[in-house]
Every structure is written in structure tokens, then in C-alpha cells.
Amino acid sequence: MKLSENQLEQIKAVAQDNSIFYQDIRNELIDHLASKVEELMGSGLNFEEAFLLSKKEVNPNEFQRKILMASHLGYFKSIFKNLLNWRILLKSIPLFTFMVLIFFIRNLDPFAAEKGLKVIVISCTVAMALMGLWGGLLKNSQVVSAGNTLWLTICISQLLLDLDTFVWIGISPHASIYLITFSLCLLLISGLSEVVTQTKRSKLI
After folding, report:
1. CA distance 45 to 31
2. Low-confidence ranges of the chain (pLDDT < 70)
3. What secondary structure, in 3-state letters, does the chain show?
4. pLDDT at 136
5. Which residues contact 44 (CB under 8 A, 6 or more apart)?
6. 118 phi and psi, to 5 degrees?
7. Where does the chain cross the membrane (predicted)?
8. Alpha-carbon dihedral angle through residues 40, 65, 142, 56, given to the nearest 10 degrees
9. Is residue 23 within 8 Å of residue 139, measured between CB atoms?
């Protein structure tokens, strides 16, 4: 049963709950409530009864939390899935080459190169987060989730991709720093591609 404009306005008023920070999640909640009300009205309830029952069944905080958790998990999967994407691999090569050139120009030993590399990667991630804040993109949950996941991935990788560990298992310092550099470049480009994709989508909505 199709809802009237006045009925939709009542549903929208409920979705204006201040606990919901993201506009796209608010829109999704409106669609969810409207569908639920229509379904209940189709089973014989009037609008008031269906609306009251729908509000009781949907907790805005829980609704937002589930969407955010699913989004973050989805982006973690996408970032690691993208590591096998040939486009991501190709896009990572120029950044990798640039980083290696810096190592050679500054004549850095592998251990100094590792410190510089990790500072640069973290700085780039923070700079992108600030650009998102400046660009007003923090009202879109998908952009924020993609950015958060990129940040978490880079932080975790900085701990796991450790030069001392690679050397300890028998890989030479120079081979290790090249491997670490390419891995971090690949993760950065993979995560950034997700952020860019979601940013473009948010601007089309």
C-alpha cells in the first residue's frame, strides 16, 4: 500500500534522530521504515498502528551501528581483494618507483629507509583524512568507512611489515625494504581507490 506525502513526512521526522550522524544512513532508515509500514498496512493494520509497531522494532542507534560494521568489514575485504587487481598493481608501480628513487637519492640504508617510508605513508593517509574533513565528506558513512578502513589497514600493516622480522627469517635487508615498500604502496593505492570510488558516488547522490 503506497504511503501518502503526509505519512512519509511523519516517517522522515522519526529518522531525524540526532543519534544518526550520516545522511545516507538516515535516508536508508527512512526507506526501511516506509517499507516496513507498507508491509504491515498490507497485512491489515492502519497507518498509525503500523507506524507505531515499526518504530518499536527499529532502534536508530542499532540500525546505524549495523550498517557501519558491515561497511567497514566490506571495505577490509575489498582492499585485500584489490591487491590482486592488475589495475591496482599498475597504479602502485609509479609510487613504488618514486619511493625507491628517494632511497637512492638520499643514500638511505634499509633501516633508515623503513622509518622514512612509514612516516610518508602515515602522513599521506592523515592528509587524505584532512582533505575529506575540509571537503565536507564526513556526513557520508560510506566515505568515512572506506577512509577508516584505509587508516586501520595502514596502521596494522606498519606493525606487520617489519624490517627486523623479514631479516630475522633470512631475507636480506635490501630485498626486505623493497618488499615492504611495494606492499605498503599496494595497500595505500588499494585503500585509496575505495575512498575515491565512494567519494564519487556520494557526489552523485
Report:
1. 19
2. 1, 17-18, 132-137, 203-205
3. CCCCHHHHHHHHHHHCCCCCCCHHHHHHHHHHHHHHHHHHHHCCCCHHHHHHHHHHHCCHHHHHHHHHHHHHHHHHHHHHHHCCCHHHHHHHHHHHHHHHHHHHHCCCCHHHHHHHHHHHHHHHHHHHHHHHHHCCHHHCHHHHHHHHHHHHHHHHHHHHCCHHHHHHCCCCHHHHHHHHHHHHHHHHHHHHHHHHHHHHHHHHC
4. 60
5. none
6. -70, -35
7. 88-105, 117-138, 150-171, 177-196
8. 20
9. yes
- Among 85, 189, 68, which Cα is nearest to 128's? 189
Rounded Cα distance, 55 and 174, in Å: 61
Cα(49)–Cα(57) distance, rounded to whole angstroms? 13
Residue 55 cell numbers, joined:
518504530
Single-letter code of the amino acid located at 30:
I
Contacts of 191 (CB under 8 A, 6+ apart): 75, 79, 146, 149, 150, 153, 154
Q: Model-level pTM?
A: 0.85
Q: Give the C-alpha separation, 9 to 51, whole Å.
A: 12
Cell of 165: 622480522
**All three cell numbers of 22:** 550520516
